[in-house]
């Protein structure tokens, strides 16, 4: 059955990388139909609402989203639409695979998966100023929420993911030495669950040491699971191991649907110049195809992408090449055969 998906091209470089991705999906014969919707600054400008009801309705109807990056104003303005969508549809598991694509970088053959809790932690957005006489913004505080329910379902997701994908080890990264209640609860739950998965090797590590070890010896890791903000930071670090944000895909999976997006943002510094690398969104689209049981099509696209990048004649600037988005896209379409 053909799946209809909601497509949100997004802000900044979003429309450029989305166009490239849809071109490749169509050329590869993906059995998908596309319901294009707006969100973010683009929607704010067009309909004065960064998350229009039509967009939410479309997601509700189709349950699967391919989303370009959305700009979030810093410090003031509307809250992150990415976070709103994740919350609205309870997309609790953020799956971020990291794989070496461009050879000759600092590390060869990286193949890691980070699973980030997507709905709790500091991202619940419970924060406020604490005023003092004469200074209403004298201090500010944010609340980190960790629930047993949230910790358990994300840790279980990580163990199940490891089993399903033939992975050997799960590392839970935490800061339970300092945040004894919140991070301690997350760690306790992970430890309890590990006992149910004797076939999967399990370890826990403090987050700062995990960051260092990822740089020194990433090969010791396999699947990593952690709470929201730690996952946000370490997944960018992991993208750095394989050449940067341009190569990092993500799937947000949950009870109300699934949303696939690149890890990178809207890159306002290069928007509109036709030089963005579409690989992050393209690999996210491949994760979407895996999700809707169209894995052979996803594999064909991944093989074509690898071929183009490994041959090295057509690469975008962030890969050290000279090609623009369109030329890189054409090369992948040609490599599909
Ligand atoms: P960014 O990821 O947009 O850019 C960081 C750097 O990486 C920039 O130099 C940019 O040019 C480069 N870069 C990113 N993607 C690239 C690509 N595909 N090809 C080539 N180069 C690429 O991060 P930022 O500048 O911190 O954030 C910009 C905006 O994006 C902010 O409003 C932020 O909130 C938003 N953002 C959105 C998402 C999302 O929608 N999921 C994620 C992260 C940031």
Would you kindly provide a written description of the structure presented here, covering whatever features stand out?
Helices cover 40% and strands 21% of the residues. α7 (207-216) packs parallel to α8 (228-241) and α10 crosses α11. A ten-stranded mixed sheet has the order 2-1-3-12-11-4-5-10-8-9, sandwiched between helices. Strands 6-7 form a two-stranded antiparallel sheet. With 337 residues, it is α/β, with parallel strands linked by helices. The protein is built from eleven helices and twelve strands. β1, α1 and β2 form a beta-alpha-beta unit. The structure holds nicotinamide-adenine-dinucleotide (NAD).
Low-confidence stretches: none
Radius of gyration: 20 Å
Q: Ions, cofactors, ligands: which are bound?
A: nicotinamide-adenine-dinucleotide
Question: Would you count the extended β strands for me?
Answer: 12
How would you describe the shape? globular
What is the rounded distance between the termini?
A: 25 Å
Sequence of secondary-structure elements: EHEHHEHEEEEHEHEHEHEEHHH
Beta-strand residue percentage? 15-25%
Helix proportion range:
40-55%
């Amino acid at each position: 059955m053909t799946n209809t998906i909601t497509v949100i091209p997004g802000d900044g470089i979003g429309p450029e990388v989305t166009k490239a991705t849809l071109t490749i999906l169509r050329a590869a014969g993906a059995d998908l139909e596309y319901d294009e919707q707006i969100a973010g600054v683009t929607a704010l400008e067009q309909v004065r609402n960064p998350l229009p009801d039509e967009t939410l309705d479309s997601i509700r109807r189709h349950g699967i989203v391919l989303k370009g990056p959305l700009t979030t104003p810093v410090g003031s303005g509307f809250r992150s639409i990415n976070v709103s969508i994740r919350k609205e549809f309870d997309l609790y598991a953020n799956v971020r695979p990291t794989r070496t694509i461009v050879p000759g970088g600092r590390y060869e053959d990286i193949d890691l998966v980070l699973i980030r809790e997507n709905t709790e932690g500091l991202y619940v957005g419970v924060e406020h100023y604490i005023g003092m006489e004469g200074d209403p913004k004298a201090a500010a505080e944010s609340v980190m929420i960790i629930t047993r329910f949230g910790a358990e379902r994300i840790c279980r997701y990580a163990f199940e993911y490891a089993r399903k994908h033939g992975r050997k080890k799960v590392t839970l990264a935490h800061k339970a030495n300092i945040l004894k209640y919140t991070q301690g609860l997350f760690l306790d739950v992970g430890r309890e669950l590990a006992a149910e998965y004797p076939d999967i090797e399990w370890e826990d590590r403090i987050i700062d040491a995990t960051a260092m070890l990822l740089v020194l010896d990433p090969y010791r890791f396999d699947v990593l699971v952690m709470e929201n903000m730690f996952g946000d930071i370490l997944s960018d670090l992991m993208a750095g191991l394989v050449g940067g944000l341009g190569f990092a895909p993500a799937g947000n999976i949950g009870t109300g649907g699934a949303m696939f997006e690149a890890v990178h943002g809207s890159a306002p510094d290069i928007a509109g110049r036709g030089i963005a690398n579409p690989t992050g969104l393209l690999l996210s689209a491949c994760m979407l195809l895996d999700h809707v049981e169209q894995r052979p099509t996803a594999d064909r696209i991944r093989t074509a992408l690898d071929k183009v990048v490994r041959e090295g004649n057509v690469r975008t600037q962030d890969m050290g090449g000279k090609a623009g988005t369109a030329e890189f896209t054409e090369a992948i379409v040609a490599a599909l055969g």
